[in-house]
């Protein structure tokens, strides 16, 4: 990778642990008796979990197994979804599977606690095995996708590393301050199938915002669209507002909106038309001259609501 900073990668932690099954089940009993409070005494606190993950990983699909976990008469386990894929034969010993459920493993899994896989990115969350997937799917520390829209970019990371990636690798312009005045110039305005798009990053209020400028067809009508995305979570994005303005010859088009989180892909934002949408004819009119070349001046402002 061409830039520094904490970029999350998929390699799991290497340490493994030994589960104390007794402790796990004893603890489960305590909770079933209705005293879930402090679990510190008996519960194995798992933070690095290769061994457990292997134990709970289906040998057929390699996904984590959730109840009902199926086992063959010799004790090999697999997930219930894969039972049909293997024609009722154990993938490990080829024995006929039958309908044996591995309750012990299900209960052990239930009693375990895991740290979030994004712990190294700052998440302190400890979840139960069965809630782990759900949490990680929504974890606010999960890496962001690169917000660059011009090509498919597989880089993910936290905001700081993505800002560095945008400026270093995508050569995106970075602007300081909360007001801007941008000119978009394009000679061949007939190219509107995703042909014009630009991204500028703004740094204000200690945060980063991406200004997108795109060309596409809305139905059959060629349009330009400008919108702002916030480099962070949606709840924080909602604390900001922004306005965009274009005009010429005494006409003005103004958009006031709330920046969208970069968790929402730019395509999603575009499809919801949550931004300043300018019909091409109007954009060319605003451009002046012979109405063939796009010379659009977009003025904008970002503010904090609270
Ligand atoms: Zn499976
Ligand atoms: Zn078997
Ligand atoms: Zn998390
Ligand atoms: Zn990228």
Structure described in brief:
The protein is built from 9 helices and 18 strands. It is of the alpha+beta class and 306 residues long.
Proportion in helices = 10-25%
In CATH terms, what is the architecture of the largest domain? Sandwich
- The parts where pLDDT drops under 50 for at least 5 residues are 1-48
Shape: elongated
How do the SSEs run, as a string of H and E? HEHEEHEHEEHEEHEEEEEHEEEHEHE
CA-to-CA gap between the ends? 38 Å
Rg, rounded, reads: 27 Å
> Total domains, how many?
2
Strand content: 25-35%
Major sheet attributes: 6 strands, mixed
| Associated small molecules | zinc ion
Q: Using the coordinates shown, work out and report the CATH topology of the largest domain.
A: Apoptosis, Tumor Necrosis Factor Receptor Associated Protein 2, Chain A
Oligomer: single chain
Give the name of the CATH superfamily of the largest domain: Apoptosis, Tumor Necrosis Factor Receptor Associated Protein 2, Chain A
Count of distinct strands: 18
Structural class: alpha+beta
Per DSSP, the total helix count is 9
Q: How would you state the average pLDDT, rounded? A: 81
Classified by CATH, the class of the largest domain is: Mainly Beta
